[in-house]
Amino acid sequence: MSSKELIVTAGAMVAEHKGLLAMDESNPTCNKRFARLGIPQTEEARRAYRELILTTPGLGECISGVILYDETIRQQKKDGTSFVKVITDAGIIPGIKVDTGAKDMAGHPAEKITEGLDGLRDRLAEYFQMGARFAKWRAVITIADGIPSRGCIEANAHALARYAALCQEAGMVPVVEPEVLMDGGHTLDRCYDVTEEVLQTVFSQLYIQRVMLEGMILKPNMVLPGLICPTQETVDEVADATVGCLLRAVPAAVCGIVFLSGGQSGELASARLNAMNVRFKSRLPWALAFSFARAIQQPALEIWHGEEANVPAAQQALYHRTKCNRAARRGEYNATVERTRT
Ligand code: 13P
Questions:
Q1: What is the 221 CA–ligand 1 centroid distance (Å)?
Q2: Closest protein CA for atom 9 of ligand 1
Q3: Residue 2, domain member (yes or no)
Q4: At 141, which CATH number?
Q5: Does the beta carbon of 277 lie inside 6 Å of ligand 1?
Q6: Which end of the chain offers a freer environment for a tag, N or C, measured as fewer CB atoms within 10 Å?
Q7: In terms of pTM, does the model score above 0.90?
Q8: Which structural domain range is residue 288 located in?
């Protein structure tokens, strides 16, 4: 696989004001979300839910790529058509989560290290054969008293860089996701400082591991106050802090930036992305897009509730959120767009 093909794929992932749909929840995470709504936690329920998402009419209008989980990339529609075929027929690029989860980090209480490098070269080759053209690896960084530690940041950045190098070797675009979590009472300023340090460390490691920045996508958190911080900044303040931090820490050669939603509501995630694109339109060296899971899926999941009869209404809700986020990329999202259902 040549560098050129990687650059073409990365470019297609953020082209035409589209973005990514993350539907790569691991089985335990997907089951937890089902359990909260009383949906059975079975392989068939997970398959039916993913079929609902992937057969949403018009999904490819606003979504350029979907991130799948190992179970999902091997599944089919009820009529036997493979999910990968459904995705590519819709003009969407299939992607795959390849880390094996964030585990407790030895010697670092309350911190996590993401695992999955062992055997990764072989797993990437298999996923490429199955049609995946990009991959995702998520590191999680927790803010609390005395953490994150330097050891946690460096170990996770190193793993992200080794994963990214293996992806490019396999012809797959790495989505590099260092997530600074929203949980806690920290301020926006503290999130800014931690996010900047994490990104600086990640890009230093990507350089050392010879990752081609033009053929990768960064998936960061927005710079936000903690969920229970008493001071919650405005949408514009969040946009300014987030883009300010990224401009300092992310090289201009990076193909695109796609945000995770991290537990924000769908509306707030769209509004903040929109503000960034409005306020910094002419000053951005990279595309600023989205790769949301909860901020796109949550309303649809709640409507579906595991009932076949609710599929069309759930698909309409999913389509609506994808449209709102495409509008946010253009800087055209507002209350009217939010209210208008098509
Ligand atoms: P959320 O948008 O729900 O944070 O999920 C994005 C994701 O892919 C997490 O790894």
A1: 9
A2: 260
A3: no
A4: 3.20.20.70
A5: no
A6: C
A7: yes
A8: 9-339
